[in-house]
Amino acid sequence: MEEFILDLTLVENLIYNYMRLILLLLLPCFCFSQKYFIEDSKVSFYSWAPLEDISAISNKLEGVVDFDSGDFFFRIPISTFIFPSSLMQKHFNEKYMESDIYSMSSFKGNFNEKILLSKNQEINISAEGILNIHGIDQDVVIETNLKVSNSKVLFDSKFDIFLKDYKIKVPKIVRMNIADTISVNVSGNLIINK
Known about the structure:
single chain; alpha+beta; Lipocalin; eight-stranded antiparallel β-barrel
C-alpha cells in the first residue's frame, strides 16, 4: 500500500512539474506582444507643377508595428529615392533634402484601433504620430488602410506633405518646377517576427 501511495505522489509531482513546464513555455506567447516587420514596401511621391512633374520611388522603407499596443516606427533613407532623371535625383539629395545632413525620414506614433490578426479583414485606421522630414518634427494623422489575411498585413496610405512645414526651400528660379504640396503613397506587407 505504501508503495502505491509513493507511486501516486510521484505521478502527481510529475504532472505538476509537467504543467509548470507547459505554462512556462506558453506564458511568453500570452504576455509579450508580437511585433510585425516590413517584408517589402513601396514609397513614392509626386509633385505636379506648371513646368515639370517630379516623381520618385523607394523600396527601402523599414519599420515595426506592435498590434497589441498600437505603437509603430517607420524610417526611410532619403538617398534611396530613385528619379526618372539623375539630375533630379542629385538636386533632390543635395539642394532640397540635404540628405548628407538629414539622411533619414521617420514616422513614430500609435493607433487606437484594435485589430484581430487572427481574423481576415480590411480596416481603416488613423495613425497618429511625429513625422520627421528634413530634421523637422510635425504632429500628423495619416489615414491607413490595412488588409489582414492569413496573419499577413498589407498596408496602404496616401497623404500630402507641405514643403514649408519641413523648411524645404525652393529657389525662386525653379519655383514653377516644384509644387508646394507633395503627394506621398506608402504601401507594403507586414509579417510577424519569427
